[in-house]
Amino acid sequence: MDKIWIKNNEFKQLTDDEVKKLKADELSLYVKDLNEHRVKQAQKEIEEKIKDSISKEDFEKLKASIDELNQKNADNLEIRIKEFERLAKEIAEKSKKQFADTEKLSGFELSLKMAKDNISGKEISSVLKDYKKGDKFSFSVKFISGDVTGNPSTPQLVPGIGQIPMPKFVLSNFFPISPIQPNNEGVASYDDWDEATTVAAAAAIAEGAVFPESTAKFTRKSITIEKVGDSISMSIETIRDYGRFVAELARFISRNVLKVVNQALWNGTGVTPNIAGLYTNAPALDTLTVTAKEKTSTPDIIDLVKVLNKRILNGADDKYMPNFAFVNHDDYLTLQLAKDTTGNLIYPNGVPMVGAIEIIPTSFVATNTMLVGDKNFVELIGDPNAIEIEAGYRTGDWENDKESIKARVRTALLLRDADKSGFLKVTDISAALVAITAV
């Protein structure tokens, strides 16, 4: 009988469609040859894995023992599997190097068990693929599901790990970023107008009259580049046996840092080591100065944004073009659910833009507060998203057989005094709405 799965004296695994075309006697031979091939492949892979991790003498003993048991039990695959499994463990236990402990062999043991329990069969199934145990040994195999009442099973591990909350919108991706320069002594220096002594004196001049003289002064200022960080200590067992968790823990502390940084970019106090936030530095709307033209009947946040936009434009001779308004999700929801007197949504197509201003909800903003501004006049010094990850020992790690990883980022938010007029915050939206309500 011609074996179509043997080419040039080498086994060639058939596809599922090819297997279905085999006759009963051909299928029986194919099943036997396939199992034989799998055992040889597993044997070869194990030898490659351990040959550099045990002594040459032990390795040669292992190969000799395998050859011997293969010859003695050429027709008994199950005995060969059991003996090979036993010999591999025995050599591993005797080895002075710590390569092949029980856990490291478990992936191979599983593949042998699959072969042992499926010596005869009728259908090929791709049941086991890329089985991994601690990422230390990977064995990929197709096995025969044969005339057995049940197939060996392994617990299914669903990929991934549940994620901790992290806002989709972050300020660190919203504003322009400048890199931190070397040898900065921990501060970012910048030139700004000295507004207290700056006078614009331009005026119409009669023929022969003296020209007016303006006064302009500059001052050099600086802000401290602050640092936000986090760390976590792990046992050596965790690091070596649960690699996927180590990577996840690194992402965990990175997210922790990123979340704290973004909150600080919004409302950090500016008292070292805290970042000075945008909301903290922006001027506030003075509701006592609201004019009659700024009032309307039954105003909402859209109307309030219009008032803030007008004030920013008028107050700086159109220097700015406000393009964002930050609000909390609760206040944004009031716009989404707002209805007219007939019960219809006021904004059925979603919350609209106000001119060039996009109203952006974010959890970094406290409920009942908001801020409108021109993002082109804010600058982040150092990329808040470029979080550094390092590993090392902290106090107590060495003696307790632990290692720690830490995450850090250094950044600062620059809002020049001369540009603060491009921003207006509202510390109490409810009170502001009352102030702009026409009586």
What does this structure look like?
- The protein is an alpha+beta fold.
- It has eleven helices and 17 strands.
- It folds into two domains: 6-145, no CATH class; 171-189 and 221-435, hypothetical protein PF0899 fold.
- The strands form six sheets. Strands 7, 10, 14, 15 and 16 form a five-stranded mixed β-sheet that branches. The protein has a four-stranded mixed β-sheet with strand order 12-11-13-17. The protein has a two-stranded antiparallel ribbon with strand order 1-2.
- α10 (329-337) links the parallel β11 (324-327) and β12 (358-361).
- α3 (56-72) packs antiparallel against α4 and α4 packs antiparallel against α5.
- The longest helix is centred in the N-terminal third of the chain and has 27 residues, at 24-50.
